[in-house]
């Protein structure tokens, strides 16, 4: 392990929800939940205002609605998130050639390889400037961890959340890790944590004291060895630049099980087309087609077929997926379907005989229950172009010929309700239209921050003005403001939902604006909500449930690396 904290881990704060708040002035400071809005949807990201009510990533959306009934519930807009992610990754690539993205909002950076940091002080200055640059370029905040290894850098960024920076001084790692829960370490989930707790091991220090042999006995050879090394703060993994994708896939989870075989086939064809769109968008082709079917009893079947060569031809992928479906019994109903392509190449093999598969289709049947906290990909299945069916998704961007740019608050009963505002405007007014209004059309999201040529270079002055918070582990000189909180997986399936607006707009007074929030009753239509709930065309309806985030608590770590006293105003 290196002797300087020159590995940086960046994790954007509540990324999807924060992007939505930045794009929609009326949602700033209010509880926002992004994810699948149907009965089987899950939370992708919750804003910090929503987390106050107990909402968190991977939670079933129905549970989130019970905890925070007055939050704004939106489907993801991955076009916007990818654009912002590229801006952030561009800043990281300006620091080093070794940037390892983990997702749209998270990455490791080897600062030493970029020649921009060589000791604790230079690394800290890079982290401070990076946070300021991110805020300038995107309008969003990110948390930064700096350490001598990837594991410790990630732990540091989690401790820095939200909107902070924590640096772990080399030599203080074990003292800092010791009092932390074993769940802090990568790979220790609820099951492993409970197993260790029953053995009397709850902290990292107790994990190290248990010894390698005991951990191997409790957890098995591979897991025991790995966990013991982590407890001793050992991690020699290098930062690997731009990890290659191994597969491209899409899947849909259905609110109601599909029993009709013809419809199942149509869904598979649609998924195959979407998969090829993503494949081509990444400039890739692949030679192994994979079909995933989750049946009514939660058992999951996977079928695959290998072609002669790689392809990005939608007809070839559709035909292969159809052949794979022929070998699957869907009697009893299907709750999830997925189509993927693996064996990727960065070119297209123009082979007229690519569809001739090699050997018989391989099959794997896995009889397993569906996990409670479903892991979701960074793009939800089920995303359809809004214009095709005049289907308006909550949170998506639109433009009206008379009123300009806005976003869909909800739709139902033949009506769509739109709030007209932009990232740099005041909270906008609300109007309701027929869903087939010819003057209303879907459009691409606007940039969160107006682009300026000098934006990326504004970090130095921005750092001074914003006064970034820095916590230094094992150093008496650094005290930072950090709040506990972890960013979970970002994903979820998309279904439309009605959004009822209880927020006061420009016509209300300061008190009304402070108390207002956006409420989303499950299953209601905006056509009904816009009238029955008293939202007029100006959007000045009654205030809803207010939400606020407690101020970040000051945190200091003593010279020994242990965590100091904390307080919350």
Offer a few descriptive terms.
569 residues, alpha+beta, Alpha-Beta Plaits, DNA polymerase, domain 1, Dna Ligase, domain 1, six-stranded mixed beta sheet, five-stranded antiparallel beta sheet, 17 helices, 23% strand, globular, disordered C terminus, DNA-binding, DNA-directed DNA polymerase activity, DNApol_IV, DNA polymerase IV
How does this model look, in words?
This protein has 569 residues and is of the alpha+beta class. Among the domains are: 7-14 and 79-176 and 451-487, Alpha-Beta Plaits, CATH 3.30.70; 180-231, DNA polymerase, domain 1 (Orthogonal Bundle); 247-366, Dna Ligase, domain 1; 389-442. It has 17 helices and 23 strands. The protein has a six-stranded mixed beta sheet. The chain has a five-stranded antiparallel beta sheet with strand order 9-12-10-11-13, with helices on one face. The chain has a five-stranded antiparallel beta sheet with strand order 17-16-15-14-18. Helix 9 (204-210) crosses helix 11 and helix 10 (212-219) packs across helix 11. The longest helix has 21 residues, at 261-281. It is globular and about 65 Å long. Residues 347-389 and 453-569 have low confidence and may be disordered.
